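Lab notebook, bench 4. We co-purified these components, and the gel suggests they stay together. Before we commit to crystallization screens, I want a quick structural picture of the whole thing.
Request: model the full complex, all chains together.
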Amino acid sequence: MNDSVRFFDTTLRDGEQAPGYSMNLEEKIRMALQLEELGVDVVEAGFPVASPGDFEAVCSIAGTLKNVTVAALCRALVKDIDAAHEAVKKAARPRIHTFLATSDLHLRYKLRMTREEALEQIGKMVAYARGKCPDVEFSAEDAFRTDRDFLCRVVEAAIRAGASVINLPDTVGYAVPDEFGRMVADVRARVPLADRAILSVHCHDDLGLAVANSLAGIANGARQVEGCICGIGERAGNAAIEEVAMALRTRHDHFGELGYNLRTEQICKTARLLATITGVKIAPNKAIVGANAFAHESGIHQHGVLANAKTYEIMTRESVGAQASTLVLGKHSGKHAFRTRLKELGYTFDEERIETLFESFKSLCDRKKAVTDRDLCALAENTASAADGAGDDSRWVLESFVVNSGNRMSSSAVVTLRKGKKSVQEVALGTGPVYAALRAVEKIVKHPFSLDDYQLQAVTEHRDALGEAQVKLSDATGTYRGRGLSTDVIEASLLACLAAVNSMLSNGHALGTGAASNVQHQFAEDMLAGHSDKPL
Ligand code: KIV
Ligand code: ZN
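Here is the predicted assembly.
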């Protein structure tokens, strides 16, 4: 048995399918690059046949990542496999990941196929994919609820047809750990060619058991584990990659010295980036990456930790790259110290970006007494996204604003924006200062939009905390997200609004539409509509 576990990350496919987690092209590429930095073995970049946006994202990620396998998902249909191949073929290490549901429930009601027809389809389509790409993964969707004898026949057929990875999903999160482990053990023991392929597990979290089930799969011989950062994904989500990795690292006494390529020190940075991009906050009590994961509130715990950290800490902050919220730099710090601290926090930028970031840092020092690591991370993440359009004369930038607000009056805002050399000022009224300020922007840019979502949160604890505003704006072309950061919440809101307006006006990439999720359920319709697979 190969004694290392491969991490297959599907944040950009299964994760992105979940409501609230859609990303645009630039965001997907940023996330994919960070996943490469984290050291996952496979990045599942999307479901190319689902929409032109998904196709383009998979192509771009395939052309960008150099050190990981890039997988594209497809149903076991010729047109899907062709699209998946077309999208990943430029990757340094491409993989076609094809799937077909195998439980009687799915075969009968969703696919309207018999077991024998499914077996034939799997054999034909895996062979077809293998003719196009040397690395083919086959997933038996709903494997856990599939009749065990039939599942063994399916696995054997897929391996004979050329699949080198066989994935056994618990698609609906129904399994409990000992049963799930037994399924993996059964397949290994009963399928004659099982050792020619890597067995993979893909567990959903409907009963909160996705990580436990994944670990049971590994304990029984699975050597690829699929999951998402922070456990995002369809419904209750997928197994959280960071939890599986830290369980293997922390409990190597139990799991044995299983090797893996994942750099656990990059975990927090990756989770933070996902939260920054999607605007979905990490719950404070989230295992491994939550703000409280290393906090000790009670006196007894604090006393124990001071005496010996191992009393209440089973892993170190450093092992997951969690930064302490300590005062690190101030207004007298030089650029060298600033650059070094950013590097220690996992951010490496070119000199031009360091320069911009240093300016933002200095003006933050003027407004805020203590600049903490968390402030620096927020600045760094904000700069990485804002810099994409920096110095571009076709973008609107904030020049100044004044708001007037009170509990017995309407709010008003005077906003001045600049585009290239042109400065435009407008006044607007609203039921609150944010409303008035955004209304003034709408008047200046002369492009109506609706505000679909608005969130404001403090990045750090104190009264002078940086506030981060996130907005989702939409027009007829789609939905656009923007972020803004400032110690002034109105300024943060205006900056967020401008980021979204600029991508809207420049025909930037709108957020995904969840098409990947819908297409998964159309297999039968496609078969009946004549897209089914002609004899090869
Ligand atoms: O949950 C599932 O079964 C899936 C497959 C498509 C791999 O996501
Ligand atoms: Zn899934």
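The radius of gyration is 25 Å. Worth comparing against the SEC data before the next meeting. The mean pLDDT is 90.
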